[in-house]
Amino acid sequence: MSTGQQDRLEALFSEHGRFVYRVARRLGTPARDVEDVTQEVFVVAFRKLSDFDGASPRGWLFRITSRVVSDYRKRASTRNEDLAAPLPEECSRGSQDEEIWKRQMRGALDEAMDALKPAEREVFTLYQLEKLSMRECVELIGCPEQTGYSRLKSAREKVRRRLSTRLSLVAPLEEVS
Amino acid sequence: MSDDWQDALTPFAREVIASAEDDACDDGAFERMNKKVVAAAVVAASTGAAASAAAASTAAGTAAAATASLATKAGVPTIGAVFFKLLAAVAVGSTVVGGVLWSTSEDETTAVSAPTSSATPEELEHDETRTPSVSDLPETQLPAEEEEEAPASDGVTEDREEEGAAPPRRPNARVVEERHEAQDEAVPAASLGDELRLLRELSRSVQTRPAHAVRLAEEHEARFGESDLGPERELHRIRALIVLARDAEAARFRDRFHVSFPSSPYGPRVDALITGIDR
User: Fold this and answer.
1) What is the DSSP string of A127-150?
2) Which candidate from A21, A86, A153 shows the least CB-CB separation from B245?
3) Would you say residue A21 has pLDDT above 60?
4) Hey, are the CB atoms on B132 and A170 less than 8 Å from each other?
5) Which ipTM value was assigned to this complex?
6) Residue B45 per-residue DSSP state
7) Which H or E element spans position A6?
8) For testing the chain A interface, which of B112, B118, B124, B208 should be mutated: the one with the most A CBs within 10 Å?
9) Would the pTM count as exceeding 0.80?
10) Rounded Cα–Cα distance for residues A1 and B19 (Å)
11) Residue A96: CB partners within 8 Å, gap ≥ 6?
12) Which candidate, B115, B91, B128, places its Cα nearest to that of B33?
């Protein structure tokens, strides 16, 4: 690896590493593997660096991330891993409660987003969670804006329904008096 | 498209969506990945240039590992990225590498798989980051009932053991009596009012703070294990687990419910909850 290549790789990681990490997580990589998947994304990027024209590195990395995560999930699926499984409850108390609570909520989001098709998950991730504009989203994804909105609408409805279904399943009972 | 969508969600759903804010990569992870990315790229470059010499990879990995491990053991302070990269490049570049490179983190030596499609899930797994399951917890943190033998007729026992999150089992009368005696000595007697307050908070928390509700159910079980209100507690616990999407656990607690309270009028309701998940 030449110094020039290494510098370029470092610059890419420095500028986009955190974005790739978050997106890899939100596209469906469990927290335990997100560092490895991020690493894999940049190694793939390194291999393709000579073919990259330099335009929109974030979009280029996003597309690589999407493919790497997709491959990861297929491999995990063949091993029957439950990628959406929320983290289990812990019996600790006190100052850790808030952290446990957050992890529980994050597990519920994983479960809800598991209902999405990959294309819906991409736009939901970028628009709803990364807070990008729809124009930025479709530039990264590479689809027409109207398609982006359509996917977002479908994704939102699925997530909302999934979360509300959870609650409707457990409709309040008569309280203990 | 406006973002009123999120505002229209239930408080629970909004909190679930907001939990994604914690996906941010912290500085420690960023530094670790920065080192790994460069090291793995070195490996990838070397692999492409010398695929025929895969047999030398073990030796190369060992050499790199020894170098890195030695540096760590010698107390070399946080090796800067540049120095690390130099080490990796020398260790890997001077021999022919096929697959595995070792790198150091601040306090450990970690095997880093070359991130190719041949990497196995086992190689990728980070056990140290895994949150412990119920079965991982020390016994002292579990409700006392879990220490008892399950009834022989409990058809779910084997299943529970396999999945590692077994719900506590129903104790026999003798053990309960002894435990109550012990409790009488250890903790002040709790009144019916205390129990009702606890159950009321449990019931109210199911939809708004389900994780808290699960903890309250555990507390109720620990303090009022043989209460006549056990079926209510279990019903609310199962509801909270469903809200948290912990479906497998909810199903196991449903099974236990039928063993513990076979004639409870809540039985059909519990079944309907689990059926609702599967639908």
Assistant:
1) IIIS---HHHHHHHHTS-HHHHHH
2) A86
3) yes
4) no
5) 0.80
6) H
7) helix A3-26
8) B124
9) no
10) 40
11) A90
12) B115
Using DSSP's 3-state secondary structure scheme, residue B197 falls into: helix
Nearest C-alpha neighbor of B131 from the set A136, A104, A160:
A104
Write out the DSSP string of B3-43.
SHHHHTS-HHHHHHHHGGGGGPPPHHHHHHHHHHHHHHHHH
- Give the HSE-up count for residue B208: Cα atoms under 13 Å, Cβ half-sphere: 6
Cα angle for residues B176, B180, B185 (degrees, 5° grid): 155
Q: What percent of chain B has pLDDT over 70?
A: 45
Residues of A in contact with B117 (CB under 8 A): 71
Please report how many Cα atoms fall inside a 13 Å half-sphere around the Cα of residue B77, on the Cβ side: 1
Q: How high is the mean pLDDT of chain B?
A: 61
CB of B82 within 8 Å of any CB in chain A?
no
Nearest alpha carbon to residue A73 among A109, A43, A118: A118
Helix or strand (DSSP H, E) at B104: strand B100-104
B235·A128 Cβ contact <8 A: no
Pairing, β B100-104 against β B109-113: antiparallel
For B193, the closest chain A residue by CA position comes to: A177
Two tokens at B243?
Answer: 């809200």
**Band of residue A4 on the pLDDT scale cut at 50, 70, 90:** confident
Count the neighbouring beta carbons within 10 Å of the beta carbon of residue A175. Answer: 11
pLDDT digits (tens, 9 = 90+) for A117-126: 999 999 999 9
Closest-CA residue of A relative to B127 is A32
